[in-house]
Structure formats: structure tokens, C-alpha cells
């Protein structure tokens, strides 16, 4: 399914262990900027749909989002306030002026200034503030998606550990039976003690691997619970993952585009500082009132002025070049992940085939051992191969899921827009 047809989760989620409803944080994004315009970048973020289907993934995602400290949201709030302040920079400024005359008298004035012409400086300052908000908004979306990805990776680590341990646990009874048979054969003088020790070593190795897997799963769940608003020990299994919506582009590219707009606005402000501006001013004070027109430039002209203006033009070209470079890097990363996913799926299919063959071989050898045509050590070796191939098949299943989630995170599609 595409991203627009994905499951849209509500603003609450249910505690998987106790059935408690917990409110999700309110959305921090708003496409309506302070100057009344609409941000296409933020609108694109808000329209994104999560590719996580209903099930274990969205429970984990909601739990880690509800406990998010949302540090990046503070940066967005600060940028929004700066944009609000700059939205009115075209209005007159009013302020006091206090000076000491040559005769020792204190002269106080109330000065009003209005910029009449500034070569687009004020407009560029507003554009810079808008772009700053967009950069902070994309950074918040990246932070939110990375947090969900981190939680889901911990969940997959825990589930993979439990699945590998389950494979060992299912084979333990058989291995313990063969160990018992060998101990009785050694006691009866039929088999050597070395053969018994070999079986014991394989049994101990299987127990050790199972214990390590369970410890790894417990550690991952403990870390996941530490970053969640409620324990997630009752959540199990894998969920479906959809495809990002049409036209979606990586968040790194969106951020680079916003940063390019900010850089160009900054260059425009700097360029206007080298050009003359016209300002009207009026004052009322202890020495009377007055007014006039002022022509001036923020930056004086010098021998390096031409080079400074050329540098500003070059910085704008560099900003556009960075967008192209970031887009190329994102496409390379995306194609690399897709190739890795295709390879993992092929490996998973092969591993499942090998596991089925190993299970069939074990059944044949087990029957032959019972009829006296195979030794216990031969059957134990085949059982060990069967367990190894099954563990590999299980591990690859979770690696496939992990890679799918990485692709979704790169595209910024792990969280619904209104949940950012």
C-alpha cells in the first residue's frame, strides 16, 4: 500500500499490559507561518502517513513517542518566535535617545524611524526567519522518526533474541535425550566416554547460546521500557510495513532545501548591507522636535567590497550545490538499503530452504539411529546443523524487518504528520 493509504493512528494508544489509554503529545507543526504564508515544506511533513500497520510496531512507536522529551521541539518553538518577531520588521521603530551635550547638558529624545527603501533587506530577514522555522521543523521530524526507529530496533533485537532462544529450547529436549542415552551407553560400556563428552559439550553450548539470547532480549526490552511511557513486555510479533506515499522525499533533502533557502536569504541581507538605504526619521525631545530623510549603508565601501559581493553570490551557488549533493547521498543510501533488503530476502528464503532440508535430514538420521544404523554422535551433529540453520533463518527475518524500517525512517515515514 502507499503512504496515503497507510493506517492513520489515533492520538491515543493502549497500554499493552494493562489496557490504559495514554494521550499522545500534540502536534508541534503548523504550516501557517507568522507572516500569513503557507510553508510547503511543513505542509509536506504534516501530510505524511506512517507506513506502520496496526500491530506491535505502532504500539511501540506510540509508547516511545509519548515519552519523548521533544528537545527538538524547543528549537522549533524558538525559531517560530523569532519568525514572529521578524514578521513585523517593516513597521516603524520607536526608541529613546539620550546624549550628553558639549555643555554638559543631558539631551533626551524620542526617535521614530521608518525604512523607506533597503534593497530588500527587511524582506530577506523575514524570509530567513521563515526558512529557519522550516529547518527546525524538518529537524524535529528527523528527531521523531529516529526516536521511533531506535525504539523499533530495540524491539526487534528483543524479539530476535527470544526467537533464537525458542529454536534452542525446542531442540533441548532432543539433545538432553541423546545425552542421557550416551551416558547410559557409557555406563554399560557400549560407548566411549569421549563420545559422551562430545554430546555434553554440544548440549552445554546450546544451553549457553539460549541463555545469551534470553539475556540479550531482556536487556533490549529493559532499554526499550526505559524510553517508553509504559512497559512493552506484553507486545510480541512483527507487523506489516507499507510504502511511503508518492512524491515523498528523504528528510535530509527537505532539510537541505530549507537550509539553502535560509542561506540565500542570509546572503541577500548581507548584500543589502553594502547598498545605500533610505530611512525617514522624526524626533521629539527636550531640545525640540525635528525630522528628515537619511541615506546610508550598514557596511562601508572599501577595497574588498567587490570581493565580498562576489563571495555572497558564490555562497548562494554553494547552497544550491549542497542540495544536489545531499539529494545524491540520500538516493545512494536509499538504493543501498533497497539492494540490502533484496539480498536479505533472498538469503532468508535460502535459509528457510536449508532449515527445512536440515529438519528432513534430522528426521531420517533419527529414524536410522533408532534402528541401529546411525550412531548418537552422528545424529547429534545433524541436530546441531538443524538448530544452526533455523537460528540463521530466524535472524534473517528480523534483519529484513530492520532494513525495511531503516528505509521508512530515511523517507520520514515512521510517524504520521500530526504526531510530530
Question: What proportion of the residues is helical, as a percent range?
Answer: 55-70%
Amino-to-carboxy terminus distance: 22 Å
Biggest β-sheet, characterized? 4 strands, antiparallel
Mean pLDDT: 82
Superfamily at the CATH H level? Outer membrane efflux proteins (OEP)
In the residues, how many domains can be counted?
Answer: 1
Which of globular, elongated, flat, extended, rod-shaped describes the shape? elongated
What are the secondary-structure elements, in order, as H or E? Answer: EEHHHEEHHHEEHH
Beta-strand level of the residues, as a percent range?
5-15%
**Strand order within the widest sheet?**
3-4-5-6
CATH topology: Outer membrane efflux proteins (OEP)
Over all CA atoms, what is the radius of gyration?
34 Å
Instruction: Give me the secondary-structure category.
Output: alpha+beta
Please report the total strand number as a whole number. Answer: 6
Segments where pLDDT lies below 50 for 5+ residues?
1-25
CATH hierarchy class name: Mainly Alpha
CATH architecture: Up-down Bundle
The number of helical segments is 8
Amino acid at each position: 500500500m502507499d503512504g496515503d493509504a497507510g493506517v492513520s493512528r489515533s492520538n491515543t494508544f493502549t497500554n499493552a499490559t494493562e489496557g490504559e489509554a495514554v494521550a499522545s503529545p500534540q502536534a508541534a507543526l503548523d504550516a501557517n507561518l507568522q507572516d500569513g504564508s503557507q510553508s510547503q515544506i511543513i505542509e509536506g511533513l504534516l501530510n505524511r502517513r506512517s507506513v506502520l500497520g496496526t500491530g506491535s510496531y505502532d504500539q511501540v512507536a506510540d509508547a516511545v513517542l509519548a515519552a519523548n522529551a521533544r528537545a527538538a521541539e524547543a528549537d522549533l518553538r524558538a525559531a517560530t518566535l523569532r519568525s514572529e518577531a521578524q514578521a513585523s520588521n517593516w513597521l516603524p521603530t520607536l526608541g529613546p535617545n539620550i546624549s550628553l551635550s558639549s555643555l554638559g547638558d543631558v539631551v533626551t529624545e524620542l526617535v521614530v524611524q521608518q525604512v523607506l527603501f533597503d534593497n530588500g533587506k527587511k524582506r530577506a530577514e523575514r524570509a530567513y526567519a521563515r526558512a529557519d522555522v522550516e529547518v527546525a521543523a524538518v529537524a524535529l521530524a528527523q528527531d521523531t522518526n529516529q526516536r521511533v526507529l531506535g525504539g523499533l530496533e530495540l524491539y526487534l533485537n528483543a524479539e530476535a533474541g527470544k526467537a533464537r532462544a525458542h529454536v534452542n529450547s525446542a531442540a533441548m529436549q532432543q539433545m538432553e535425550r541423546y545425552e542421557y542415552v550416551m551416558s547410559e551407553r557409557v555406563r554399560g560400556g557400549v560407548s566411549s566416554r569421549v563420545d559422551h563428552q562430545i554430546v555434553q559439550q554440544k548440549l552445554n553450548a546450546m544451553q549457553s547460546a539460549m541463555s545469551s539470547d534470553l539475556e540479550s532480549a531482556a536487556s533490549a526490552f529493559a532499554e526499550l521500557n526505559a524510553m517508553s511511557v509504559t512497559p512493552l513486555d506484553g507486545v510480541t510479533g512483527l507487523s506489516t510495513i507499507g510504502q511511503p506515499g508518492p512524491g515523498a522525499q528523504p528528510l535530509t533533502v527537505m532539510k537541505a532545501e530549507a537550509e539553502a533557502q535560509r542561506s540565500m536569504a542570509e546572503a541577500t541581507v548581507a548584500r543589502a548591507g553594502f547598498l545605500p538605504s533610505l530611512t525617514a526619521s522624526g524626533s521629539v525631545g527636550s531640545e525640540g522636535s525635528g525630522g528628515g530623510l537619511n541615506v546610508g549603508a550598514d557596511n562601508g565601501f572599501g577595497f574588498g567590497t567587490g570581493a565580498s559581493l562576489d563571495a555572497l553570490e558564490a555562497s548562494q551557488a554553494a547552497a544550491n550545490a549542497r542540495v544536489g549533493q545531499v539529494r545524491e547521498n540520500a538516493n545512494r543510501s536509499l538504493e543501498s538499503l533497497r539492494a540490502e533488503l533484496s539480498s536479505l530476502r533472498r538469503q532468508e528464503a535460502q535459509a528457510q530452504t536449508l532449515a527445512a532440508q536440515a529438519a528432513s535430514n534430522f528426521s531420517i538420521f533419527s529414524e536410522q539411529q533408532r534402528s541401529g544404523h546411525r550412531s548418537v554422535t552422528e545424529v547429534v551433529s545433524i541436530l546441531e546443523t538443524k538448530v544452526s540453520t533455523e537460528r540463521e533463518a530466524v535472524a534473517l527475518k528480523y534483519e529484513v524487518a530492520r532494513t525495511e524500517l531503516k528505509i521508512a525512517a530515511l523517507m520520514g515515514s515512521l510517524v504520521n504528520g500530526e504526531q510530530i
